Amino acid sequence: MYREISVARSDSSAHVAVVTMNRPDKLNALTKVMEAELRDAMEAADCDESVRVIVLTGAGKGFCAGMDINELEILPPGDIRAAQWMRPYDMNRRADFQSRYGYFPAVRKPVISAINGAAAGLGLVFALYSDMRFASRRAAFSTAFARRGLIAEHGISWLLPRVVGPGHAADLLLSARKVSAEEALEMRLVDRLCEPDELMTHTLEYAADLAENVSPRSVRVIKRQLWEQQFQTLGEATQMANAEMFDSIQSEDFTEGVAHFIERRQARFSGR
């Protein structure tokens, strides 16, 4: 079905979809084909009720080295705002997520980036738009833009300070220097650091725990809360939480959450 990505279910849990950028000879540098396929795969996983967690990774030695330079050289200025990339996303109502890569937070399921190698430029953008970032000790990071005569694109100037703080964000964006996995963990650019041969095992085990033992309904709501609270006051966030808690207490998953705890058995959440 796809030419430059692959999609499979994890052996750890059938509820975990693994989306792999698959141009290993080019360190999974992004093309128009891969960009369209990645968005299609994410939307399909979001619509598939059997999928509860999405893991994004790269084939071979790289995560994503950014836009393929051959395509970047011929990128017309109008492409950045072309209708086929900027169309509204049905998955989320906020205008803030109606952007080229805004579908990452708009997806209702957690997106975990398993960063196995270089994450530069758009590769780093993808990682930042994910909900969590697990990295191999061989991973390396760079914003890259300033060293190509470009600027902080696709909202990274908003995302990066919220992840690593304003000082680190300025350093990474202005210098566009290469950052090691260890330094990335120290500045909280990544959440977990793994040995290279353990990255996917660890990531998929974590994803399977989310998929099997946590209410999908709760996860959907909490993910939306985490992204939307960045645009809310404390009062607005509290009002949203109060309304969602009222609905949660009346849900099937709340009933099951209490029952499996009292009965000391595996949860059987329906997501409703």
Automatic annotation (TrEMBL):
Domain of life from the UniProt record: Bacteria
Keyword Aminoacyl-tRNA synthetase carried by entry: no
Keywords: Membrane, Transmembrane, Transmembrane helix
InterPro entries xrefs: ClpP/crotonase-like_dom_sf, Enoyl-CoA_hydra/iso
Record keyword Secreted present: no
Pfam family, one: ECH_1
GO molecular function, one term: catalytic activity
Membrane-crossing residue ranges in chain numbering: 111-129
GO annotation, biological process: fatty acid beta-oxidation
Gene3D superfamilies reported in the protein's UniProt record: 2-enoyl-CoA Hydratase, Chain A, domain 1 (3.90.226.10)
Descriptive protein name: Enoyl-CoA hydratase
Taxonomy of the source species: Bacteria, Pseudomonadati, Pseudomonadota, Betaproteobacteria, Burkholderiales
